[in-house]
Amino acid sequence: MLLRQSKSLRQSILKKIFDGRIVPQDPNDESAFVFLVDMNEDASLLDLARLKNDLENLLGTPIDITTRSALHPMLSDAILKEAITL
């Protein structure tokens, strides 16, 4: 199941890149990719780190990753309005 989800996520990200919704950035700048993920209740910090590593390998660039629950309450509405669902 994880492999199927990974392939689906990969295809979704690649489509966004192809459509121009995710653009390259100067490698000296901060990360162009920030992923907001909803993890299963039983997921660990190690699972989140593995996902980050997998996405960085897939995209070939550093990314930032966070969870919805980690968003600052004063910023969460603005962040969620700008989020692109994959």
Biggest pleated-sheet summary: 2 strands, parallel
What is the radius of gyration? 13 Å
Shape, please?
A: globular
Order of helices and strands: HEHEH
Q: Compute the number of structural domains.
A: 1
The helix content, as a percent range, equals: 40-55%
Q: Biggest sheet: strands side by side, in what order? A: 1-2
Report the CATH C-level class.
Alpha Beta
| Helix run count | 3
For this structure, the CATH topology is: Beta Polymerase, domain 2
Name the CATH superfamily assignment: Beta Polymerase, domain 2
User: What average pLDDT do the residues reach?
Assistant: 76
Total beta strand runs: 2
Ranges where pLDDT stays below 50 over 5 or more residues in a row are none
Concise overview:
This protein has 86 residues and is mainly α. It contains three helices and two strands. It has a two-stranded parallel sheet with strand order 1-2.
